[in-house]
C-alpha cells in the first residue's frame, strides 16, 4: 500500500521529521551529559540535590518505582492491545504493542552500548558506569504514549494528561531515589518519542481506504497546553542549570543547599517538560493516525 493522498503524505513527512528531530535531540543529550565534564557535573549536582526533603517523599517514590516491573509492563501492554481490539483496530493493537516493545528493548540495548567516560566528577558512582537511558522511565512513557494512540477520542485527552503525569512522576522518581541522573530520564522520553513517530508511519501505511480524517477529531487545545507548558518547563530547566555554571569548579558534594535545590527542581522541571512535549506531538497528530471509518 502506498501513501497516495496529499494529506496522508504530508503527515508521513511530518512524522519522519519528528523522528529525526527527536533522534538528534537524543544525540545532543547523550553527547553533552556523558561526554562533557560540565554535563556530568550538572547531572551529579542534580542527583546530589535529591537528598533535600527526601524523607518526605520516600514513600510515594518507592510506590511509583516498585509498581514498574516486567510483569506490570506485560499487563499494561495486554490491556492496551485489548482496548485497540475491542475497537476493531487490529493494526493499532499490533502497532501499539510494537511501540512499547521497541522502546523498551532499545532502551536496554542503548544502556549497554553507550559509554560514560570518567572525568572524576562523580567518584561515588564511577564504578556503575553508564545509566542512560532510564528503563523505568521508558516503561512509563511508552505505556502513556501507546495509551494516547488506542483510547477513543472522547477520553483520549484525559488519558494523555494522566499518562503524562504518571510518566513525568516516574522520571522524577528515578532521580529522587538516586537511581538515575536527569539526563537518563530525558533520553528515555526521546527514545519513546522516536518510536511513537515510527509507529505513526506504520499506522499510516496500513490505514484503510475508508478512513475519514476530520479536523473536528483533533485535540489542538490539549496539545497546545501540553506543548507550551512543557516548553516553558524545559526553558525553566535551562535557566536554572545555566545559573549553576558559575559554580562548576566546585565539587557537587561541597555545594550548599540553594544550588542543590535549584539543580534538582530545575532538572525535575526539564524531565516533566520533555514528557509533556513528546506527548503533545503525539496528541497533535493522532486523529490522522487513528481516524474514523466511513459508515
UniProtKB/TrEMBL annotation:
Recorded superkingdom: Bacteria
Pfam families tied to this protein: PAP2
Protein name: PAP2 superfamily protein
UniProt keyword list: Membrane, Transmembrane, Transmembrane helix
Protein species of origin: Micromonospora kangleipakensis
Domain called Phosphatidic acid phosphatase type 2/haloperoxidase: residue spans: 92-200
Annotated Gene3D superfamilies: Phosphatidic acid phosphatase type 2/haloperoxidase (1.20.144.10)
Annotated TM spans: 12-33, 64-85, 92-114, 134-151, 158-179, 185-206, 218-241, 261-286
InterPro entries: PAP2/HPO, PAP2/HPO_sf
Amino acid at each position: 500500500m502506498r501513501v497516495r493522498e496529499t494529506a496522508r503524505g504530508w503527515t508521513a513527512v511530518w512524522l519522519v521529521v519528528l523522528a529525526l528531530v527527536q533522534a538528534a535531540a537524543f544525540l545532543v543529550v547523550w553527547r553533552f551529559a556523558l561526554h562533557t565534564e560540565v554535563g556530568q557535573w550538572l547531572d551529579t549536582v542534580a542527583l546530589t540535590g535529591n537528598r533535600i526533603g527526601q524523607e518526605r517523599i520516600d514513600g510515594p517514590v518507592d510506590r511509583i518505582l516498585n509498581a514498574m516491573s516486567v510483569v506490570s509492563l506485560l499487563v499494561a501492554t495486554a490491556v492496551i492491545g485489548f482496548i485497540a481490539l475491542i475497537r476493531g483496530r487490529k493494526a493499532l493493537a499490533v502497532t501499539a504493542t510494537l511501540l512499547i516493545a521497541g522502546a523498551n528493548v532499545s532502551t536496554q540495548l542503548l544502556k549497554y552500548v553507550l559509554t560514560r567516560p570518567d572525568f572524576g566528577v562523580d567518584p561515588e558512582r564511577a564504578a556503575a558506569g553508564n545509566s542512560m537511558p532510564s528503563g523505568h522511565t521508558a516503561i512509563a512513557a511508552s505505556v502513556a504514549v501507546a495509551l494516547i494512540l488506542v483510547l477513543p477520542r472522547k477520553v483520549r485527552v484525559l488519558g494523555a494528561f494522566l499518562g503524562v503525569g504518571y510518566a513525568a512522576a516516574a522520571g522524577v522518581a528515578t532521580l529522587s531515589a538516586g537511581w538515575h541522573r536527569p539526563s537518563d530520564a530525558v533520553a528515555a522520553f526521546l527514545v519513546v518519542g522516536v518510536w511513537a513517530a515510527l509507529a505513526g508511519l506504520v499506522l499510516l501505511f496500513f490505514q484503510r481506504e475508508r478512513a475519514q480524517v476530520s479536523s473536528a477529531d483533533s485535540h489542538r487545545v490539549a496539545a497546545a497546553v501540553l506543548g507550551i507548558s512543557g516548553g516553558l518547563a524545559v526553558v525553566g530547566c535551562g535557566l536554572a542549570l545555566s545559573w549553576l555554571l558559575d559554580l562548576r569548579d566546585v565539587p557537587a558534594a561541597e555545594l550548599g543547599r540553594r544550588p542543590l535545590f535549584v539543580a534538582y527542581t530545575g532538572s525535575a522541571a526539564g524531565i516533566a517538560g520533555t514528557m509533556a512535549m513528546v506527548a503533545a506531538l503525539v496528541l497533535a497528530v493522532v486523529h490522522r493516525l487513528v481516524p474514523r471509518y466511513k459508515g
